[in-house]
Specification:
Blueprint lengths: L5 H21 L5 H5 L8 E6 L16 E6 L4 E6 L12 H13 L8 E3 L2 H4 L13 E3 H11 L2 H12 L2 H14 L22 H14 L4 H4 L3 E4 L4 E4 L4 H4 L3 E9 L3 E10 L2 E10 L2 H18 E7 L4 E8 L5 E6 L3 E6 L4 E9 L4 E2 L6 E10 L5 E9 L8 H11 L7
Parallel strand pairs: 12-16
Antiparallel strand pairs: 1-15, 2-3, 2-10, 4-5, 6-7, 8-9, 9-10, 11-14, 12-13, 13-18, 15-17, 17-18
Helix pairs in contact: 1-12, 3-6, 3-8, 5-6, 6-7
Length: 419
């Protein structure tokens, strides 16, 4: 049996009291970082070398189509627009929205490329562009996407809508809901394929908006929209793209043609060169050749005048902060997604970054990818805000236990042995 003198017991009690006092201070919002962590010295603003567009005068084109838009999808900047909000018949450019919803279903796991799409009696009766999809015949989702993207098959499009939503009207409601969420103010769909119908319309700007959403959020679609020729039904049925840009324009990778006797000729086109992509939309052109030529002119203007320059890659660490309620962690603050800006070709300038946190003190527990603030990017010369990107912590940071705090405190403060 061990015997401890009264004097020793008194000292131990005093030291334990001090220890718990320190623990209370350390775990408080105010003093925690002061005792266990060095204070972060990173300034919230700093200069980095990057680029910003100065954007010159509006270009002049001798277009004969009704409306046009040129957009850079990464930034969403519209570089040219004419009658961009006019409500027009979209024809099969409607299928951009159909494809967007299909790709969403694939990317969230509700639909697989190997799933089978079976043709209904309703789908088999669709006119216009088709592959003569027979009632009861099945295609994989992969094959169906080829049919829709390459030859604009209305029969396959309807079968796909029925597979996803149970009926075409249910699917059309999904289309209109999505259009509303994207801010497509001059759009209303009545069907999923684009055959002319009363109250079925969109605008060049809205086509650019949904095209941007499609290629940015679901870039795998470009594997289908960039096909020039392919086959279905074990090689027995040939496919040849309705979009002649795929063959004739360098970097062309999409996106969707459309034409009817009332709508005339529409095209939402996309092309990529040197990591820069543009979307060019032409609506109500008098011929297929004219819609192609006008899209080429828009794309040429984009590639010759502007370029994309990267400022931050996804996951770039921009700051480090201590985490209250956790004895060990300094959290790396990273950008949630890549951030780029559009610039005049060859131009560069400095920008200022401004880090804004949701709360001054980070407090555990923190879940991975939790947004803790934002990074604003400003022009150093003008002070104009170029854009912003969310800031996240990429790892789980749990709240420390009392035992972990005690261990940390013992390491931090010198204590004499109790025996």
């Amino acid at each position: 049996m061990l015997f401890i003198k009264n004097k020793t017991i008194s000292k131990c009690i005093v030291r334990i009291s001090i220890l718990f006092t320190i623990y209370s201070m350390v775990t408080s919002n105010v003093f925690g970082s002061m005792f266990l962590y060095p204070i972060s010295t990173k300034k919230s603003k700093s200069s980095v070398q990057s680029s910003v567009s100065t954007f010159g005068t509006t270009p002049q084109f001798a277009f004969v189509s009704a409306s046009q838009v040129l957009m850079e999808p990464t930034t969403g900047k519209i570089l040219y627009a004419n009658n961009e909000n006019e409500k027009l018949l979209p024809a099969s450019v409607t299928k951009v929205m159909t494809l967007l919803l299909v790709m969403e279903q694939i990317d969230i796991g509700k639909l697989s490329y190997t799933d089978k799409i079976t043709c209904s009696a309703n789908a088999s009766k669709m006119g216009g562009s088709q592959i003569w999809f027979k009632e009861g015949e099945s295609l994989s989702v992969d094959e169906a996407l080829k049919a829709i993207c390459v030859v604009s098959a209305n029969d396959v499009t309807v079968a796909m809508s029925e597979h996803i939503a149970g009926s075409e009207p249910n699917f059309v409601k999904m289309m209109n809901d999505k259009a509303l969420s994207l801010g497509m103010e001059n759009t209303h769909f009545m069907n999923c394929h684009g055959i002319d119908e009363d109250d079925h319309y969109t605008s060049a700007k809205d086509v650019a908006i949904m095209s941007r959403e499609l290629i940015l959020k679901h870039p795998d679609i470009l594997k289908y929209t960039s096909i020039w020729m392919d086959t279905l039904r074990d090689g027995t049925f040939s496919l040849s793209s309705t979009n002649k840009l795929i063959k004739s324009y360098e970097g062309a990778n999409g996106l969707k043609t459309g034409s009817t006797s009332k709508a005339l000729f529409n095209l939402s086109s996309s092309a990529t060169r040197d990591n820069t992509t543009y979307i060019a939309v032409v609506m109500r052109a008098p011929s297929s050749d004219i819609r192609l030529e006008e899209c080429k002119q828009l794309l040429n203007y984009g590639f010759s005048t502007y370029q994309i320059q990267n400022i931050y890659d996804k996951g770039t660490v921009v700051d480090s902060k201590p985490v209250n309620k956790n004895v060990e962690k300094h959290a790396n603050i990273t950008v949630q997604e890549s951030f780029s800006t559009l610039v005049d070709k060859g131009s560069k300038m400095e920008v200022i970054e401004n880090i804004i946190y949701n709360n001054d003190i980070l407090k555990a527990p923190i879940t991975a990818n939790q947004v803790v603030g934002k990074l604003e990017v400003l022009s150093k010369i003008s002070g104009e805000k170029i854009g912003e990107v969310p800031l996240v912590i990429t790892e789980d940071i749990p709240k420390s236990s009392i035992k972990e705090y005690m261990k940390k405190t013992f390491k931090t403060f010198t204590m004499c042995p109790l025996a």
